[in-house]
Design brief:
This is ATP-binding cassette domain-containing protein. Belongs to the ABC transporter superfamily. One of its GO terms (molecular function) is ATP binding. With 300 residues, the protein is α/β, with parallel strands linked by helices. 34% of the residues lie in helices and 29% in strands. It is built from ten helices and 14 strands. Strands 6-7-8-3-9-10 form a six-stranded mixed beta sheet, sandwiched between helices. A four-stranded antiparallel beta sheet has the order 2-1-4-5, covered by helices on one side. The chain has a four-stranded antiparallel beta sheet with strand order 12-13-11-14, with helices on one face. α3 crosses α4. It is elongated and about 75 Å long. It starts with 5 loop residues before the first strand and ends in a 5-residue tail after the last helix. The model has no long low-confidence stretch (mean pLDDT 90). The protein binds adenosine-5'-triphosphate.
């Protein structure tokens, strides 16, 4: 494979007793925005750090453009680590120019890119401020600028949206879409599943270091047979082959096994009282995530 796909292949990592990644395999294709989601401690950061070569795997490989990622290749990646590594006493502009230079840019290019990205991310007025004096959201914007200003050919971003206000979320979303449209593979982790649902071409759900679902958002949302039923009366919807995803008052979201006839569910509901709502339900990514995670137990 010589295209710019990022590929995890059987990646496994232990921290002592903790199996943080367990035979993790998936790929992020050129031009694709891939959302990496999972509970706290599921293994997202570990996977991303291995992709960057910051951490080594115990088994398996991560390849980009068909090869294990070398230090030289890593310079062409835009990486946003979970633990943000900015120098608090340096000004925003000095910081960004310095980081751009580390990525091999000339002084003039580094300066121009700093101006461009600080303008784009709404930091024009903050260029001369010390990073440590900025609000957390603005520090986050600087971190994003740092990941983007050298024109990376692969983006690996650990929770890039956390702490951003809605305007910054929109800017960030459009930047990711633009980079993907230019053919860059984009991998990012997030707990903001509505955002992931809106933005991503494909999503990988990781639980205890294993990939438990990986597909387009549409395909994932179609895998469950769910119904929303509202019955104005006391009703226990836990019929054979029916799992109650959640109930709120008289309104229930139900997941049906393959052999359950939805008309039987309707008859049972009508026997309990007037049915004011009965419709197939396409779960949101958030609902799907809850199902996938709680089905198989909580993570550490
Ligand atoms: N340096 C370390 N030493 C020991 N255990 C670690 C270390 N780093 C991570 N772990 C463990 O590995 C597992 C995966 O952690 P990781 O940080 O990759 O998860 P995550 O999905 O990024 O979580 P979050 O959403 O909370 O950021 C967890 O059980 C965590 O406690």
């Amino acid at each position: 494979m010589t295209d710019s796909t990022l590929q995890f292949d059987g990646t496994t990592k232990r921290y002592g007793e903790v199996l943080a990644l367990d035979d993790l395999s998936f790929e992020v294709r050129p031009g694709e925005i891939f959302g990496f989601v999972g509970s706290n401690g599921a293994g997202k950061t570990t996977a991303m750090r291995i992709a960057l070569g910051v951490l080594s795997a115990d088994a398996g490989t991560v390849r980009w453009r068909g090869e294990p990622i070398t230090l030289e290749m890593a310079r062409r990646i835009g990486y946003m680590p979970e633990e943000r590594g900015l120098y608090p006493k340096m000004s925003v502009a000095d910081q960004l120019e310095y980081l751009a230079r580390l990525h091999g840019m000339s002084r003039a290019d580094a300066r121009a890119a700093t101006v461009e990205w600080t303008d784009r991310l709404g930091l024009t007025e903050r260029r001369r401020s010390e990073v440590g004096a900025l609000s957390l959201g603005n520090q986050q914007r600087v971190q994003l600028a740092a990941a983007l200003l050298h024109g990376p050919e692969l983006l690996v971003l650990d929770e890039p949206f956390s702490g951003l206000d809605p305007v910054a979320v929109d800017v960030m979303s459009s930047v990711l879409a633009e980079r993907a449209a230019a053919g860059v593979p984009v991998l990012f982790s997030s707990h903001q599943l509505d955002l992931v649902q809106r933005l991503c071409d494909r999503v990988g759900i990781i639980r205890s270091g294993r990939l438990v679902a990986c597909d387009t958002v549409d395909a994932l949302r179609s895998t469950e047979r769910q119904l929303t039923v509202d019955v104005r009366g006391p009703w226990d919807p836990a019929l054979p082959g029916v799992r109650v995803v959640h109930s709120e008052g008289t309104r229930h979201v139900l997941e049906l096994a393959d052999d359950v006839d939805d008309q039987d569910v309707l008859r049972a509901a009508l026997a309990a009282g007037p049915v004011t709502e009965f419709r197939p339900n396409r779960p949101t990514l958030t609902e799907l995530f809850r199902t996938v995670v709680t089905d198989e137990g909580a993570t550490s």
